[in-house]
Amino acid sequence: MGTMMKFLLLTLALWLLLLVYMLGNFYTGDPTTKSSHDLSRALAELEKMKQQNEELRRMADELRVSARDLHNDQVQMSQDVDRVSLLQEQLAKCESDANSNKQQAPAGSLDYPSKKHEQLQRKLEDGTRELWFLVKAQLKLMKSDSQASSVKDRIDNLLLDVGDHQRTILADAQQLRDADGGLAWRQQEAHALQDLVQRRLHYLQNPKDCSKAKKLLCNLNKGCGYGCQLHHVVYCFMVAYGTERTMILNSQGWRYSSGGWEKVFLPLSETCTDPSGSSRGPWKGDKSKDTQVVEMPIVDSIYPRPPYLPLGIPEDLSDRLLRLHGNPSVWFIAQFVLYLQRYQPYLQQDIEETAQKLGFQHPIVGIHVRRTDKINTEAAYHSIAEYMEWVEEYYQLLQKTQEVKKKRVYLATDEPNLLTEAQKQYPEYQFVSDNAISKSAGLSSRYTDSALRGVIIDIHFLAHSDYLVCTFSSQVCRVAYEIMQTLKPDAAANFHSLDDIYYFGGQGDHNQVAIAKHEPRTQQEIYLEQGDEVGIAGNHWDGYSKGVNRRTHKSGLYPSYKVEEKIELVKYPTYPEVEETS
Questions:
Q1: What is the DSSP string of 477-539?
Q2: Would you write out the chain's pLDDT as a tens digit for each of its 582 residues?
Q3: b/e map of 222-251 (b: 16 or more CB within 10 Å)?
């Protein structure tokens, strides 16, 4: 009887350990178990285990009663009974915890994916792209170095096979990310966060008493193009948000339109547009806190620099943003662009009519080709073929998950002849473009009402494209990318830049952190220890990035996959007066 009792006790203990293990794995938020199918199966197994444990408990109770009559093993049995009682108490607690967790858990665990799950998912997709950049670049180098036609043919076939393989992995990864409620959660969370920030901005811009409100005056007088001027206003707006000041935009004499900002966009405030106040002075940082009206310089000359500059994000929203979005810094910048660029009704109607006239439909890839004054000054020349390579890459990926009947491209350019050139070279594509806009972007007519309309329409359609191919050295391209983030839950990866990575003029340091050690294999590479902070200068889109190791002060190349972004968290005001809607 003593041996049998020990056997049952051991069995009960093993079941208990298995139960605790399952509960631990299921309720720790491990992303590998988060699917509704696994949830149902796990709960069924849990119910079965509970029934089996009830049977073991009953048998243990019977043995415990019988043990009172066994005088020879009285002491040993007493100890065994105590162990059984303790195990029963622990089992009861586990069952209670399990029932509590079941009640609290959402129906379909991927409706609420963990931050770790979302970050690992994006890391998988980004790593796949970086691997393809590396393989593609190296194979092309091998092909150019080879003289044998047979080797060149084999490399071409290998490029086709590896390219198709990486697109299959990406397509599967993206479908996995959206499965089991993932897409629905992402859409809901993106809408909630965007609504919250937009209502905060509306609250900031519409004080109850304008005569007493603290104000930040932003002059729209920076001598540069439209995208650059818009980013100047965004920088002012971010500082206004950080200092809890209503921004007053002075756009009189705007070089793009004599009617000022409100000629094309809605006023920034319904209650406060008067720049006057009891005191006024230039920006002096904390020394300006008692000045009612503070006038902002351009970002290039601001001193002292406020903490409220890109690429930092609000600390109070950071956990949600890091979970939701692949580039939280751009998402936050985009919120200010969204508020600023609310179209006047006539312009909204004009854009809708233009979309119908041009035949702007999905799927469509937007490309922005810079020419004229930017070549060899701010950017290098890129042929139309360089853009179309990545357009085709996008459509081949899309065809993994849906039928593509027509491959459309929205072409925005300041070169009127480019549309004809593109149509001749790529007859299998439908190019959507307005040559009148291209002509208005010329140097002789750039700062006119028609040119303003043209650049706004180009940015609108580029942002509303499914994918963007451009040069991030262009402010227009970066504005389109920013607006794109307000239209989709996470469009951080919906682009390919032929030159720079994303940046904001006047931004703080853009840093990354090494997640793996790197031993240089060439003189161009730098050494990295895990945890080293790296100031990134650019991604070469060949598997390598360039930057400076801030610990060793050495500059050079390093594998892009061995680092991750370091997002700066800034203590912005939390605006408790604005509650989040359910």
A1: HHHHHHHHHHHSS--TTSEEESSPPP--TT----EEEESS-B--SSTTB--B-TT-EEEEEEE
A2: 454 445 444 544 544 444 444 444 444 444 444 444 544 554 455 455 555 555 545 554 554 544 444 444 444 445 444 544 554 555 555 455 444 444 443 433 344 689 999 999 999 999 999 999 999 999 999 999 999 999 999 999 999 999 999 999 999 999 999 888 899 999 999 999 999 999 999 999 999 999 999 999 999 989 899 999 999 999 999 999 999 999 999 999 899 998 999 999 999 999 999 999 999 999 999 999 999 999 999 999 999 999 999 999 999 999 999 999 999 999 999 999 999 999 999 999 999 999 999 999 999 999 999 887 666 667 789 999 999 999 999 999 999 999 999 999 999 999 999 999 999 999 999 999 999 898 876 655 667 889 999 999 999 999 999 999 999 999 999 999 999 999 999 999 999 999 999 999 999 999 999 999 999 999 999 999 999 999 999 999 999 999 999 999 999 999 999 999 999 999 999 999 999 986
A3: beebbbbbbbbbbbbbbbbbbbebbbbbbb
- Within its chain, how far is the Cα of 162 from the centroid? 27
Amino acid letter, residue 278: S
> 92: helix, coil or strand?
helix
C-beta atoms surrounding 406 within 10 Å: 11
Cα–Cα distance for residue pair 558/563, rounded to 1 Å: 9
Find, among 106, 127, 125, the residue nearest to 177 by Cα: 125
pLDDT in tens, 49-66: 555 555 545 554 554 544
Instruction: Report the amino acid identity of residue 146.
Output: S
Q: Position 227: which residue type?
A: G
Eight-state DSSP code of residue 265: B
**Tokens describing residue 404:** 């593509």
pLDDT tens digits, 472-529:
999 999 999 999 999 999 999 999 999 999 999 999 999 999 999 999 999 999 999 9
The closest of 377, 567, 540, 354 to 456, measured between CA atoms, is 354
Single-letter amino acid code for the residue at 463? A
| Distance between CA atoms of residues 462 and 366, nearest Å | 5
What are the C-alpha distances in Å from 2 to residues 8, 16, 62, 78, 178?
10, 21, 13, 11, 56
Q: How many CB atoms lie within 10 A of CB 413?
A: 23
**Angle of helix 328-340 relative to helix 315-324, nearest 10 degrees?**
110
Residue 31: closest CA among 93, 104, 123: 123
- Report the distance separating Cα 356 and Cα 362, nearest Å: 12
* 388: helix, strand or coil: helix
Sign, CA torsion 182/185/189/191: positive
CA distances from 484 to 226, 337, 459, 467 (A): 18, 11, 10, 9
Measured between alpha carbons, how far is 448 from 58 in angstroms, rounded to an integer? Answer: 88
Q: At what angle do helices 149-178 and 384-398 cross, to 10 degrees?
A: 50
